[in-house]
Specification:
Shape: globular
Order of helices and strands: HEHEHHEEHHEHEE
CATH class: Alpha Beta
Distance between the termini: 39 Å
Number of helices: 7
CATH architecture: 3-Layer(aba) Sandwich
Structural class: alpha/beta
Number of domains: 1
Largest sheet: 7 strands, mixed
């Protein structure tokens, strides 16, 4: 399976803005990490310790650096871009989601990009997804502004930018 369509579509945009360093937060099976690494981006995969053990051979073979998610709050990585694909869909605890967003903010350089992709909630369904307004409510107040919006077959991808203070 290749990288998320949102990632593939936005690569030229990020290249235009000289994005080099990327944090793939909740990297899963490294599909986005490997894709971006092969295009020359400097990628750091962030995952739970348990999942990092599970994908350790893929990390080594792909030469992708990794960090345990429990350690990122101690870092200030100053990344150009952070990816967060479907992580918010699987975390029910609002405080845990807030902690992740706060850690992303702290590890993103001023003016850096933050791509969030979620399953989009259908207004007529009770599926586990999010509406655009719900996503904005969870993210914007941390100091982000919406840059771009992409929708595709039940998926919602929003590119935010960290406000320069």
């Amino acid at each position: 399976m290749g990288a998320a369509v949102s990632v593939q579509v936005l690569v030229p945009y990020w290249q235009h803005y000289h994005v080099v360093s990327v944090i793939d937060y909740g990297a899963g099976n490294l599909r986005n990490s490997r894709y971006l690494k092969n295009l020359g981006f400097k990628v750091l995969a962030v995952e739970t310790p348990r999942h990092l053990k599970k994908i350790s051979s893929m990390l080594v073979s792909s030469r992708i650096a990794a960090l345990e998610s429990c350690l990122i709050s101690n870092c200030r990585l100053n990344a150009d871009l952070v990816l967060l694909n479907f992580v918010l869909n699987i975390i029910d605890d609002k405080r845990e989601r807030e902690k992740i967003i706060r850690n992303i903010y702290l590890n993103l350089k001023p003016g850096g990009f933050f791509l969030v992709e979620v399953k989009e909630k259908n207004k007529n369904s009770s599926t586990k997804g999010m509406l655009e307004g719900e996503l904005d409510n969870e993210i914007v107040h941390y100091g982000f502004e919406k840059e771009l919006l992409l929708r595709r077959r039940g998926l919602l991808a929003v590119l935010y930018r960290k406000i320069i203070l």
